[in-house]
Amino acid sequence: MSEYIDLDVMDVELRLSWPPSVNNYYGHSAHGVHLKKTGRLFRDEVSKEVARQVGGKRINERPICMTVVLFQPDRRARDLDNHMKALLDAIEASQLIMDDAWIDYLQVFRGEVVKGGLTVVKISAGVEDLEQRGVKLKDIDLVLS
User: Fold this and answer.
1) How confident is the model at residue 1 (pLDDT cuts 50, 70, 90)?
2) How many independent structural domains does the chain possess?
3) CA separation for the pair 123, 105 (Å, rounded)
């Protein structure tokens, strides 16, 4: 039986490798969608790193907030969102969280260039808990047209 991390007590911060783009993570064949070798290697690496960094603990079912900083391995132009699917699916596969649908609030930032690339993920309590900490989501201006 796994121990659970209490996000009311502490946030979780992970340092992971640079994720592949969704184009290099999934492949398509006559049999459907499958993980490419690059995707399997990344997913396995994330599972090992999550186990090492959080000691096999899991986050209990609840809404969570996630902040991600992607430090590119070089200066090439990249769409950050192309790397998020691989990252979120790998974190879910590690069983740290059971479903990435638990993420109610997701921030993604581009960091500076780091040789080899790096990903820093911070997971904290859900939106209600964020508001208790002084972050008011209603104060964020959204313009829908």
Assistant:
1) very low
2) 1
3) 10
Q: Quickly list DSSP for 70-114.
A: EE-SSS----THHHHHHHHHHHHHTTSSS-GGGEEEEEEEE----
- Residue 145 within a domain: no
Which token pair is 135?
């972050």
Specify if 52 maps to a domain. Answer: yes
Q: What is the pTM of this model?
A: 0.84
- Residue range(s) defining the domain that contains residue 60: 4-139
CA 10, CA 2: separation in Å to the nearest integer?
17
Asked if the structure places residue 53 within a domain, the reply is: yes
Determine, yes or no, domain membership for 33: yes
Own/partner contacts of 24-31, CB < 8 Å, gap of 24 or more, are 24/86, 25/85, 25/86, 25/89
